Amino acid sequence: MKCRLLGLGKYLAVAAGLAAIGLGEARADVRLEETYSTYQLRGLTPEALHEDLHRVAKRDRDGLVDGEVGEDLHWILRFVKAGNSCQVSSDDIVLKLNILLPTWVDQERADLAVRSVWDNYFQQLKAHEDGHRKIAIDAAERISKLTHGATASGPCKALERTLNDAANQIVEESGRAQDQHDANPQPFDLE
Q: Are the C-beta atoms of residues 32 and 137 closer than 8 Å to each other?
């Protein structure tokens, strides 16, 4: 599957064309595989937690990574030729998510006020990461809807190329949505 990107106009024309020539209404399920990872934070005050976060959390080109949703979306399409038409006979849409969030090991020993700060921070962080998760799942479901039962006249290679191009466009749009989600984060802080 090569990642060739179409302009939005071409994508819409491809999607409309597929619908006009018999895009199947049936929908396959996306196979969602989620794994969860954590890193531990220690401290009995918001300041100590903040310092530990800066000590142990991952960093990327943008700075500190409090939490993260890593995604791997791929698909396998199988085709069957029938006369002058081709149809997707089966599609496997797989979305693997690796969700990274902190855990606080000293929570039971801390004041209620500090626990409240942690709870607020963690709820906001989790909500942000859930937004990334939803964007990824929406993209996988759009690809599933696009490919499942798709039919077109002509050779199967042409249908395969068209579907892969349209699916890759969905992946690109999802990437832009993920970037936009990070560009407008709700502030979450331990201090």
A: yes
